[in-house]
Amino acid sequence: STPEVSESDATATGEEATLNVLAAASLQKSLEEISEEFTAQHPDVTIDFNFAGSATLVHNLDSGSPADILASADELNMDKAEQAHLIDADTRTLFASNTLVGIVPVDNPAQVSNLQEATANGVNLVICAPQVPCGALSQRLAEAVGVNLQPASEEQQVVDVLGKVRSGQADAGLVYATDAGLAPNEVSTFEIEGADEELNYYPIARTANSEHPDVAETFIEFVKSDTGRSILEAHGFTTP
Amino acid sequence: MTITKPVNNVRPRPTLSAGIPSSAIVVAVLAGAFFVLPFIALLAGITWSDLPELLTSRSALDALWLSLRTASAATAICIVFGVPLALVLARSNFPGRTLMRSVVLVPLVIPPVVAGIVLTEAFGRRGLIGEQLSALGIDIAFTTAAVVLAQTFVSLPFMVTTLESHLASSGEHYERVALSLGSSKWRTFWTVTLPLLRPGLVSGVVLTFARALGEFGATITFAGSLQGTTRTMPLEIYLAREADPDAAVALSLVLILIAVLVIAVAYFRPKHPHR
Amino acid sequence: MTITKPVNNVRPRPTLSAGIPSSAIVVAVLAGAFFVLPFIALLAGITWSDLPELLTSRSALDALWLSLRTASAATAICIVFGVPLALVLARSNFPGRTLMRSVVLVPLVIPPVVAGIVLTEAFGRRGLIGEQLSALGIDIAFTTAAVVLAQTFVSLPFMVTTLESHLASSGEHYERVALSLGSSKWRTFWTVTLPLLRPGLVSGVVLTFARALGEFGATITFAGSLQGTTRTMPLEIYLAREADPDAAVALSLVLILIAVLVIAVAYFRPKHPHR
Amino acid sequence: MTSMQHSGLTVDITVAQRKVNVAFSVPHGEVLALVGPNGSGKTTTLMALAGWLMPDVGKAKLDGTVLFDCPDPTRKPHKWLPAHQRGIGYLSQDHHLFPHLSAVDNIMYGMDRADITGRRARRAKAEEWLDRIGLAGYGKRKPHQLSGGQAQRVAIARVLASGPRLVLLDEPLAALDVKAAPAIRNLLTEVLRDLTVILVTHHQDDIVALADEVYHIIPQR
Amino acid sequence: MTSMQHSGLTVDITVAQRKVNVAFSVPHGEVLALVGPNGSGKTTTLMALAGWLMPDVGKAKLDGTVLFDCPDPTRKPHKWLPAHQRGIGYLSQDHHLFPHLSAVDNIMYGMDRADITGRRARRAKAEEWLDRIGLAGYGKRKPHQLSGGQAQRVAIARVLASGPRLVLLDEPLAALDVKAAPAIRNLLTEVLRDLTVILVTHHQDDIVALADEVYHIIPQR
Ligand SMILES: Nc1ncnc2c1ncn2[C@@H]1O[C@H](COP(=O)(O)OP(=O)(O)OP(=O)(O)O)[C@@H](O)[C@H]1O
Ligand SMILES: Nc1ncnc2c1ncn2[C@@H]1O[C@H](COP(=O)(O)OP(=O)(O)OP(=O)(O)O)[C@@H](O)[C@H]1O
Ligand code: MOO
Ligand SMILES: [Mg+2]
Ligand SMILES: [Mg+2]
């Protein structure tokens, strides 16, 4: 059910519009696909993406980056944007969520098959640092499960965790399910009990200074539409 | 012994090199291996069949073209700013010279992302100068100009430091001679100082251009990452890494090839160099 | 005119500088402002009251101490590797010299994160050499040694380029004279080449140390980030930035102060320099 | 010349650290031989006149123009004309030919001051100079491709071609061969006829052939 | 000396590009004056002997040791003894004192070869040399703090103090004053008595005072 485009909208009047979307790097593949579908339906709209870490995106927005939409990888950074009145709070909505999984290199040299084994002595476990969203989530999950994580390294970003397991530097790591799907031939996944209770949510919102507020909101609707959801799910996200 | 007749059709033998201690050669070979091995690892890690598609994608070409333009512009600005700055640091004796020298090197030592934050605070819309510029209708943040500014900021220290050490070690004899032949300071600068500074300029340009080409953190923070406008090669590579580290390495190969080209051109020497 | 009697209690007037064209001074002042303004913006952005707490936190102190140790070690290695490498590049004529020179500069131009990937492929647990080392029980993954390796890799090009251009522009006259006085190549290297290379070494050390101190991407990709072991100042700063950009800027101030100190020491010149 | 005050050169220089203290004058159009043992201050004197070094105390006046006036070693000089405005040609003891310029370009370098305009006129003039110093055909050589005596001669030509009002020559003939030395001496006699000149030399022949007067520096110990 | 083949120096050198072609021999213990016009190849000859430049074709033998043997300009030489193994002291036309070392340290630099061991013995010996060249008390000066003639004398002392088997002197007395020149000439007469020497000079006085034989280079045009 694609939402109807209102008559007052720029696209409908034939006026060309360019949407600037600030989006978390982990959303790159899915959002690019979604935008292809969107522009197929709205040929007058061009969508330009600015992909970066969520903290950088908020900094960019705050310092005047042209933007119509902000899609962050965590609620904390979206909160900051909201407090600074950078986004229109009424348009803020959650459109996807992510769960943590454990990963090991395909040959699994340390014979790890669950979180307990991953925390054993002599196993190089890498996780995200508690200061970043996926690290905070890992911490919560570990507490919930009742294990004491003793990482060899606390990474700044999920990609860094994935990279270390992928290259065999590390024996195990905790990443988002979406990231695990990026390297199916190089890492194997193990489920973590209780992970589906601890979710990371992706909020999206129209910016306060959007030049095409209507088109922007149309796009947000489209992301939440069936088309958008099926693309997101294909990339490993859970959708509300 | 008979006097041998002169041989004219033979390339003259060069003046002899003073030679290098053999232990230094051993260390050099080791050090060389340290560089060559990762480089081989890099080449080994590339899936060559994916390469053509990867390199000719719209976004990669946009990024490449943007990188070339911005890095060249930044290098040009670094020459224009760096030469006078190095001259003043090397050859004048104003109070606070050491402080100035340190300030010039600050961009070198702060992490690039912090450099980006600082640039925002100075040249951003709400920055010290940015605000005035904004009032005049000039908004540089998140434009290609911002990329050039970020690259210039992080790479100028290389130019200044390199040139200054060359100026300091070459002395001012020839400048004095030129002045005594009635040449003005301005003409002396163009006809004596600059030509004699050539080796320093070459290494300064190489370092500056390379640093500008590789710049990531300050660019993404101050200029953003918008295809065709601010997304340079390193930003493109960074994005590619998210999905596929091999693609990141392959894209880096392009940067490397450019760098090799620039270096080869920069180090090209005329046949008869003056010593 | 009467002959004035010699004045002995007065500091001798120095030989005169050949002077700098005034337009160059104008540009230098502009360029200086370009550096100073962001620096002022940085200072203006710091919440001074938070500073003491921020800087004396356990994690900040750990990071600082780690950064100092690793950057110093990397600089030392860069001297040991860089001097022979620069000598060979500047003063020998082996085939493939230009190629070698380019390879040495590769780490300069690839984005640091890619440098980290490449290092992993070479020295990581499954890397070309790493695998052999692993078999011998040497595992540098996630150790401080990996940090030093990453810093050395990205900063050695600065040392080599700087030294090479100095060697090329200074010629080999004095080395020849030394050899003709019966001095061996080895002794000539230590007593003539190295002392005369001093200005180049100073600027090489400054650039190398600064680059090592600011290194982020290669470190986090190759060595990881663990407090006290691999989390250097830039990594700490990036992490702090996630929560609080102001804290990141404040922590950067410490890096800057260290850099200023190093630079002041490096550029300290004895009273009577030989020209 | 009658009025030494208004025409020619008067000098009085003290460089304490080098134990140099000289005072003399040279009438316009005459050649003064400046002689004295090694280290007595000949080069120091010429450097001060050329504007390469500031004396502690001293004053110099050329044809009515004050070149410098430094009454007090602890203060800035009252007057200090920069080197390129003095109209002085200085052949230093190390000739310092520009290493990046050919012999002919070296000779052409100072012709701005000599008021020779046009690139072709300058080149023709420079080739003429090369011929006069016996190095016709060597114009394209870089300094490091010249022998010691050849380089010395190019340096002499470079100074003379720049049309100075006052010429300072620090041992111009030291490196020259038995044939070139007298030839260049003749050349100097001819060229320097109407110029004010200070000639540093250790050779009696030069003094006899070229000098109108001699100033002996007696070193202070 | 009777057997020129086994003792002393024999030289035959061609450097085509510089139009230099010389062949001569110097018996052991004698002083050969090498004279010729500027650019005739004197410095080139000394550089080849010192090992700073490789001739196109040439051979040199010192006291039975082959210094170099280059029969073919297109090939590597049969033999090429590196500079520091030749035992040759070379005073070049530009003296090239080490700028980072004091006068006394410059003089001490070559004493390794002269077999003077111990830092104190070397220093004493160097001070003695300073005294002999009339520069006692100047030992701590850096080269740029010396006058032209003073630097030249230190360079002479540096070469002689290094105890060479063969001494090559390129215009050693050019910068010296009227008193120093004869004094250094006397010094050379004394020091060079038992050494094989090639002396480049443009001055008849030097030839008369020092040379046993003269070799005239006639330039090829
Ligand atoms: N930079 C310096 N610092 C201190 N003393 C110096 C410096 N340069 C030269 N001197 C000393 O000053 C004195 C005068 O030197 P100057 O070069 O003027 O002598 P000179 O008459 O030209 O001698 P020469 O005939 O050897 O060229 C000498 O004793 C010299 O050692
Ligand atoms: N690097 C070079 N390339 C080409 N020709 C050179 C080079 N160096 C010197 N020459 C030429 O070689 C010839 C011999 O020079 P050399 O320096 O041996 O002369 P010399 O006899 O020492 O002269 P002088 O008495 O002037 O010192 C000269 O004609 C000179 O111009
Ligand atoms: O997409 Mo993020 O903000 O790098 O976790
Ligand atoms: Mg002198
Ligand atoms: Mg010569």
Automatic annotation (TrEMBL), chains B, C:
Domain of life: Bacteria
Compartments reported by the entry: Cell membrane; Membrane
Domain ABC transmembrane type-1 stretches: 64-266
GO terms for MF: ABC-type sulfate transporter activity; molybdate ion transmembrane transporter activity
TM region(s), chain numbering: 20-45, 66-90, 102-124, 136-160, 247-268
InterPro entries xref list: MetI-like, MetI-like_sf, ModB_ABC, NifC_ABC_porter, Sulph_transpt2
Keyword Translocase: no
Membrane topology recorded in Swiss-Prot or TrEMBL: Multi-pass membrane protein
GO CC list: plasma membrane
Keywords noted in UniProt: Cell membrane, Membrane, Molybdenum, Sulfate transport, Transmembrane, Transmembrane helix, Transport
Position of the signal peptide: none
Assembly notes: The complex is composed of two ATP-binding proteins (CysA), two transmembrane proteins (CysT and CysW) and a solute-binding protein (CysP).
Function of the protein: Part of the binding-protein-dependent transport system for molybdenum; probably responsible for the translocation of the substrate across the membrane. Part of the ABC transporter complex CysAWTP (TC 3.A.1.6.1) involved in sulfate/thiosulfate import. Probably responsible for the translocation of the substrate across the membrane.
Family to which this protein belongs: Belongs to the binding-protein-dependent transport system permease family. CysTW subfamily.
PANTHER family: SULFATE TRANSPORT SYSTEM PERMEASE PROTEIN (PTHR30406), SULFATE TRANSPORT SYSTEM PERMEASE PROTEIN CYST (PTHR30406:SF8)
Name this protein carries in UniProt: Molybdenum transport system permease
Organism of derivation: Enteractinococcus coprophilus
UniProtKB/TrEMBL annotation, chains D, E:
A Pfam short name: ABC_tran
Keyword Phosphoprotein: no
Boundaries of every ABC transporter domain copy: 4-218
Statement: the UniProt record of this protein carries the keyword Nucleotide-binding: yes
This protein's UniProt keywords: ATP-binding, Nucleotide-binding, Transport
Listed PROSITE patterns: ABC_TRANSPORTER_1, ABC_TRANSPORTER_2
MF annotations from Gene Ontology: ATP binding; ATP hydrolysis activity
Name of the protein in question: ABC transporter family protein
Organism placement in taxonomy: Bacteria, Bacillati, Actinomycetota, Actinomycetes, Micrococcales
